[in-house]
Every structure is written in structure tokens, then in C-alpha cells.
Amino acid sequence: MGDAHFSRGRTKRGVLLVFFWMLGLISLSCAARLSVSRQKLQVQKHLNRLNKPAVKTIKSPDGDIIDCVHISHQPAFDHPFLKDHKIQMRPNYHPEGLFDENKVSNSEKPKQRSNPITQLWHMNGKCPQGTIPIRRTKEEDVLRASSVKRYGRKKHRAIPQPRSADPDFINESGHQLWILGGSFGEDLNSIEAGWQVSPDLYGDNNTRLFTYWTSDAYQATGCYNLLCSGFIQINSDIAMGASISPVSAYRNSQYDISILVWKDPKEGHWWMQFGNDYVLGYWPSFLFSYLADSASMIEWGGEVVNSEPDGHHTSTQMGSGRFPEEGFGKSSYFRNIRVVDDSNNLKAPKELGTFTEQSNCYDVQTGSNGDWGHYFYYGGPGKNSNCP
What is the value of pTM for the model shown? Predict the structure, then answer.
């Protein structure tokens, strides 16, 4: 009797253990489904905020979807301070000297002549007047970020340096200008524009036009392109974040990206022009504190994300992947470097300095002549026998 009773007790306990174990699995399974469902809902809400209703849609050969969105419906106007903003369709002033005869295009030697570029999506159509082209954000784009909140933003550095913050990516190579105001502490203002290759942001290795801004050292404000409210685009031809085509090839045709950013002395907005023909839009003056007055530093160059562990260096290339001493047709370069002074005149910069963190990985060489003005070659292969 005692043995039988004990046996039944063990059996009951075994059933209870199995029951609670199964209940735990059900609870975990429900929690996992709720977590996935919550993330999916967050992603969808974010996509709805970013992807505005389109007047026309164009599919680019590289797989991008370009939405032609009415100019007054663009993401900038989600900002509470822009609800009643009257769009400025052209700058009050261009920098003096901008439309002077271009010595470079007329006097370059044939072997050093470069060509204008456009964007790949133009092959399949154009956006109508009164709209702006916006690269559609896809679900997989957002899911590649560390979180929905961090999508399209750079990481804040605990101790900011005189370079950009670290992008929230594993792989990226950017080539750009920085317009900076304030200290390199918690209050840094920055406007950035150039071209980048970022598989984590865009899902491919295409060369793309980009912009970025922040007014608090990359903490809570700013983003790439039109991925938050801020930059007001007025141009119907150029899409932020879209692929640039064609691109330069080693020992072959070379193509230039011409970018000008300047402050309208009347309204205080910061304007951006791409090439000779495309005034893209502006960053409203209220976005910034220090840059509402003027810039304290301007930088040109490249940056690469190094996420390799244990002090090893990334093999991500900067520029063409060639060191600067190889020169035209092989190395990447910036040329005709100029600044806009407080009289709104384009002038050659003074007190230019150079900086590279590891010259065995990437380097820079400066020069100046009558054709290219102030210029520099830069870049490198990243990891190599001298850069382990």
C-alpha cells in the first residue's frame, strides 16, 4: 500500500512538472510572437511616416523605388516648427563668383578631363514639376538598423572628435564635406554632403548621393537624406540617397560630383547645390544654434567604418582603394576647394591642414595649381601588409 501510494505520488508530480514545463513553453512562445508583432508594427508605423503618398512612382534599374511626392507633403513638414512654413523656391543670393567662367573645364588637359554625372533612376522617367523624388524606404532597410529609432542616424560618440560620428553600420565608406559649428562636445552642429557606399543603409554597394545634419553632436537630432524632418527639398530631378551613375573607373573615365553648400545671408538658411544646374533645397536656420550664425570649421575628405575586433583593420576601401601618390585616373580626389566668406564671396581657403588616423591604411596628399585650384588626392585599400 505504501509503495503503491508513493508510486502514484511520483506519477502525479511528473504530470505536474510536464504541465508547468509546457505552460512555460507556451508563455515564451506567446512572448516571442508579441515581440515580433510589436517590432513589425513599429516598423510599419515608421514606414508610413517616411513614405508619403506618391503622385508618380518610378522603378530604378538598381531596384530602388522613387516616389514623386508633392513638394508640400515631404517629410520636412512633419516638424512642428514647419507646419506654417512658406517654401522658399530659390535662394535670395548665390555666392559671388559661382557663375564665373570655369577655368577647369576649358583648360584641363584631355587626360585630366572629368565628366558630369547623373542618377540611375533617370533612365526610367522623371518626376513632374511641383513634386520631389524620394527614395522609398523598404521594410528590409529599417530591419538592417540596430533599432527602428536608430534607422538613418549616426551613433553618438561619448567624446566627439573633429570627424563625423560613427554611422550605425558595420560597413560604410563616405566621401564628403563637413560644415561644422560649435565645440566638439554635446552641442556640435554639422551639415554633411557627398557620396557614400553603405550596404547597411541601402542594401547594396552602389555609390549614392547623401546628406546628413545634426544640431546636438548626433544625439537626438538629424538624419541621413530625408529620413527625418529637417531638410526642405525643392528640386524635382535629384533624389537624396539614390545611386549616382556613371562612376569613375581605374585608368578609365573620371566623373566629378560638384557640391556647394552656402548660407543665405538674408534668411539664414543653408542651401545645397549639386552640379551646376541643381539647387536641391535648404536646411532651415532654426534647426541649428551655432550654424545659425556661421561655420567655425569646414572639412573635406573620407571616412570608413572599422568594426573589426581586437585592433585589426577593416579591408573596406576609401575612395578608389588606391593611395594618393598614384594620381589622376587611379586615386580619388577633391579639387577646386573653396569657401564662402562673410561677404558671400567664393574664395580659396586659408590655413589648410591635413589629418589621417593611419596613413598606412589611408593617406592624403595636397596640391594647388591654376587649373584645379586647391586639391588633394586621398584614399587607400584599408587592410594590407603595412596595415594589419
Answer: 0.85
